[in-house]
Amino acid sequence: MRKFLKPFVLIILLLITSRAFSQTQDVIVPGEILDKAKEWVSALKLTDAKKKTAAEQTIAMHLTTIRDWHNSHPASNIPDGINPVTGNKLSDLDKQIIADSAIPGTVHQALMEGLRKNLSPEQVETVLDKYTIGKVDFTMKGYKAIVPDLTAGEEAKILAFLKQAREQAIDFKNMKQISAIFEIYKTKSEQMLNNNGRNWRTLYSAYTKKIKEEKAAKQ
Q1: Mean pLDDT for each 10-residue chunk of the chain (219 residues)?
Q2: Contact 80, 90 (CB under 8 A)
Q3: What are phi and psi of 82, to 5 degrees?
């Protein structure tokens, strides 16, 4: 029982100290992060210079804050324990996600409010896709390929799950963590399909078999 509780007790402690972190840390945006923010915003083709600069600064500040929190809250701070869903021992990735997920919610709020103030909803989505290297579209295409007769309702629910994953994932430092967040919502999508009378394992197995056969035929 003690091992089960340790990670969650630490999360509470991190949450208590997170306010102090946000108030005392001086955020210095490094050049490479500002360059990344400018690159992302350039894809939006903004004509308003003030909105362009504001969007760049908002993204750069968020990326820097995420990096600083990650660097000051290593996985080694999290004691050994178990994943309460699977019962498996916490991996280093699990521990880092626990540590990084305790970042103050105001960090995410500042990003989203800053983006929505200066960008259209479509432009905001483009920025979020930059953070997550287009995983929403890529994953949605995968579901459509695996389930060719996906209904409009199923597609809408899966897309909603993936967009939820995307917005949650932007507050994590690297792609391993981002992919792990998406896995949470992919599991929800697949459970939804199973609840609709489909068999996700059978569908996925048939799809992989088809791909292997097509690859063999080309060779």
Answers
A1: 42 42 64 97 97 97 97 95 91 96 97 98 98 98 97 98 98 96 97 97 96 90
A2: yes
A3: -125, 155
Query: Length of the chain in residues, anyone?
Result: 219
Cα distances from 218 to residues 58, 145, 173, in angstroms, run 48, 19, 40
Structure token pair of residue 97: 């996600």
The angle that helices 92-101 and 2-24 make with each other, rounded to 10 degrees, is: 40
d(CA 10, CA 20): 16
CA dist 90 → 80, 141, 176, 177, 189 (Å): 6, 31, 15, 14, 24
Alpha-carbon span 182 to 166, nearest angstrom: 7
Residues 45, 122: Cα–Cα separation, whole Å:
13
